[in-house]
Structures are given as structure tokens and as C-alpha cells.
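Table S2 (text version). Query chain:
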Amino acid sequence: MSIDLIDAAQGALLGTMVGDALGMPAEGLSRDAIKEQFGRLDSLREGPLPLGEFTDDTEMMVGLSEALLETGEFDVQAIAENMAHNFTPWRGYSPHVYGIMARIRQGMNWESPGTSSWGSGAAARVAPLGVLYADDSNLAEHAAAQAKITHTHANGIAGAVAQAMAVAQVTAAGLFESALTTDELLECLLDPVSDHSVAMVDALERIRDLRPPDSPEQLSGTIARVFACDGSAVGTVPAALAAFLHSHSFEEAVIVAVNCGGDTDTLGALTGALAGAFYGLKNIPERLTANLVNEKRGRDHVLALGEKLGLLTRQRSGKRLELE
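Corresponding C-alpha cell output:
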């Protein structure tokens, strides 16, 4: 397997969208309910939204990507304004986000009490930051700052930091075709995460205890027993990381994730970002992308953002090498 920065960036962004759309039909269903309704959820289906449609997770990821590309650097105010501009209420946002987006649109300060959330939304959108700042010491700080637009609870912030650092590590591993062990990846995450949440550190540590079962279906069950998969950052970010680490392809990873039950669209988005960054766009099967919505800010827009993000990442990396 050999990928480049553009392939990794496009993989991370489209992987988020694929996992999100794949998990959307089963959002809120238990693992047993998914089995009863779908058998094994392994293709795009209609659900609360039409087939191939994405949720708030992808929409906010797109807003973050657009802001990074428009400014060429990390600007948390630009990110907040872009996400508010894109805000589509029917995509399944948490109730607390509505007021935040309204304040931003009105030019008011979004940094106010009452926006605390321990959910995983800030982590689900952070993949483009993990790619662009993969070799930058400011990544954890930037991931935490963008999280605070909607998530001021320590666990919500820690989830975003963990996911951003993980995307950075798997991007580098994919580019250099290096093996990635659970212990090596966790060692890169635990220190920056511990600055925010002991609970997240404890949850991430539980990944070490997982033993790969005989089949992907059994892996979904194992992950669902160990992690809540409930939409909380502590319950979903480690679960997605486990699905990625114990799978052998993009397709296997996202299917394992969404069949865990619970917050399946976010589990899919988180896992899709990791697997997409590692395996690259060319290893995302067409059968999972062909029916993605392709209207404004749809599939082709996400691919274009990924290409530009890869080029900007390459440019930034080159400038840092020149300075060194």
C-alpha cells in the first residue's frame, strides 16, 4: 500500500462522509435492533435521512475544512463562522448547538456558559485538522480550541484531541507504509488527552485489553460490550479507534463500527476518518461512495476539499523543512 498526502487527505474527508452516511440509518438502534432490521449493516440505506445523505458530523467537518482552506491556517473564529453558515438544522444536531449557531450568525460571542457538552461531535469533525497539522506541535491545542465552539466539557474536548492526534498518526503511518500497533498509537495520544480528561485516558487504555476475535461481526460485539457507543466522547472515540485498529481495510473498519449500535453515524464518521487517512481514497470501495449525495457540499465538494487540503499540507510541510 502506497499513498500520498492528497490520497490521505481525500481519504480522511470522504471517509468521514462514508462512515457517517453508512451509520445514519441505524442511529440510536441497539446492536440487536440493527441485526433484526438490517441483518448486517454493510451498505448505504435509507433511514432518518434519505439514502446516501450525511448528518451534522460531515457538515461540520466540511465547515472546518473550508475555513482552514480559506484562511490557510488555524483560525477558530473563521471555523465557527463557517460552521454557522453551513448549519442545516435537519441534519441531526444536538439541541445545544442550535443556540450556538444562532449567536454566531448574529455576530454574538459563542464563548458563553451553557454550551458544555460531553458528546463526540467535536471529535467527529476534526479529521482535516489532524491531516493539516499532522507534524505540528500545536495540533492538540488547535483541536481543543475548535472543540470549544460547541463542546466545553473536558470529555468532549479530550475526544477531539484524541481523534485529531490519532488521525495525524495514522496519516503519517499510511504515507510511510509503516505498521501501526495499538501501543504505539496510544502512547502518542495519552499525554495530550490527560491534560483534559482522566476518564478519556481510562477509556483509551481499555483498547489494550481487546483481543481481535475471529470475525468482524464478533469484533462489533466485543467493542459494544467494552464501550458505551452512546454518543458521549468517552463512549465513542475509543470505540472507533478500536474498530480501526483491529480491522484490515477501510470497508471492514467502518462496517465493524456502525454495527456496534448506538450513535452509529458518529462511530462511522470517526472510524471512516481514521481508516480513510490510513488506507487513502483509492482504497475506499466505489460501492460505498457511488450513492452518496452529490448536491452542494456533497461528495464531489468533499473530494475537492480533500485535494486542496492535501496540497496545503504538502506546502506547509515544505515550508517547515525550509525553516529547519
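Notes on Table S2: The chain has a mean pLDDT of 93. The two ends are 30 Å apart (CA to CA).
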